[in-house]
């Protein structure tokens, strides 16, 4: 079965692979750009990069309805257990990996912050490296540019998903430097155009990717799909 990714707006993605559905950072009901609502999505696993509201808002409702396993930093997974009654969780930390039925998940470094909506400590923010049967995907999630992206790229990245919104994460210019470090085959932008402060021209970004890197840019509208 071919791996298919759907951008659900902002930092949210749905990944269909090997008969499993994985959600990343579901922020749906309150998102002005999501094409779906939390009650419409299915999930076997939910990956959570950090504790900010625009990445965790719909984790518990989806997990409790579907029985999905939440995979997140230890502090975040424990919070979902104790505060929201999520029964199936995997707590991990930066640099750690786990083999799951759909592939291997490694939590990568991210330079950001992490506080849960009620003010609880959210542990370390992270990204995710997914090694799947069809290829390897790197979700940088919310992060600044950092030199160790070059080491992440040594895994051989078929698709990198990078934030380009600026203000809270790296912007378009730094994302180009990130692409040079990671050297992915293809790259997609995320975490932009959700609200005016992170509005960006994605076509201008794509032109810059083509002009300055070897990667193929893939620009989607929310609801758009990428086949790995």
Task: Please explain how this structure is put together.
The protein has helices at 53-56, 59-66, 74-84, 149-153, 172-182, 202-212; strands spanning 4-7, 13-17, 20-24, 45-48, 69-73, 89-92, 97-100, 103-109, 126-132, 135-139, 159-163, 186-190, 216-217, 225-227. It is an alpha/beta fold and 228 residues long. The strands form two sheets. The protein has a seven-stranded mixed beta sheet with strand order 6-5-4-3-2-1-14, covered by helices on one side. β7 and β8 form a beta hairpin. α5 runs parallel beside α6. The longest helix has 11 residues, at 74-84. It is globular and about 50 Å long. The mean pLDDT is 98.
SSE topology:
Elements: E1 4-7, E2 13-17, E3 20-24, E4 45-48, H1 53-56, H2 59-66, E5 69-73, H3 74-84, E6 89-92, E7 97-100, E8 103-109, E9 126-132, E10 135-139, H4 149-153, E11 159-163, H5 172-182, E12 186-190, H6 202-212, E13 216-217, E14 225-227
Parallel strand pairs: 3-4, 4-5, 5-6, 10-11, 11-12, 12-13
Antiparallel strand pairs: 1-2, 1-14, 2-3, 7-8, 8-9, 9-10
Helix pairs in contact: 5-6
Comma- or semicolon-separated keywords:
single chain, 228 residues, alpha/beta, Metallo-beta-lactamase, Chain A, seven-stranded mixed beta sheet, globular
Short description:
This protein has one domain (4-223): Metallo-beta-lactamase, Chain A, CATH 3.60.15.10.
Domain count: 1
Total beta strands: 14
Largest sheet, in brief, is: 7 strands, mixed
The CATH superfamily is: Ribonuclease Z/Hydroxyacylglutathione hydrolase-like
Distance between the termini: 11 Å
Shape: globular
Summing up helix and strand content along with how strands pair, one would put the structural category as alpha/beta
Strand order of the largest sheet: 6-5-4-3-2-1-14
């Amino acid at each position: 079965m071919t791996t298919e990714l759907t951008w659900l707006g902002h930092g949210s993605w749905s990944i269909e692979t090997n008969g499993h559905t994985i959600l990343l950072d579901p922020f749906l009901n309150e998102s002005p750009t999501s094409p779906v609502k939390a009650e419409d999505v299915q999930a076997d696993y939910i990956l959570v990069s950090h504790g900010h509201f625009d990445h965790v808002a719909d984790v518990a409702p989806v997990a409790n309805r579907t029985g999905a396993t939440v995979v997140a930093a230890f502090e975040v997974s424990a919070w979902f257990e104790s505060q929201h009654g999520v029964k199936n969780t995997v707590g991990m930390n930066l640099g750690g990996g786990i083999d799951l039925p759909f592939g291997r998940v490694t939590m990568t470094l991210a330079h950001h912050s992490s506080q849960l909506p009620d003010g609880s400590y959210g542990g370390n923010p992270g990204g995710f490296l997914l090694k799947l049967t069809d290829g390897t995907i790197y979700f940088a999630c919310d992060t600044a540019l950092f030199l160790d992206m070059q080491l992440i790229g040594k895994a051989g990245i078929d698709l990198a998903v990078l934030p380009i919104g600026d203000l809270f994460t790296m912007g378009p210019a730094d994302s180009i430097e990130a692409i040079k470090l990671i050297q992915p085959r293809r790259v997609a932008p995320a975490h932009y155009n959700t609200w005016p402060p992170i509005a960006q021209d994605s076509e201008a970004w794509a032109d810059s990717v083509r002009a300055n890197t070897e990667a193929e840019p893939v620009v989607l509208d929310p609801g758009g799909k990428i086949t790995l």
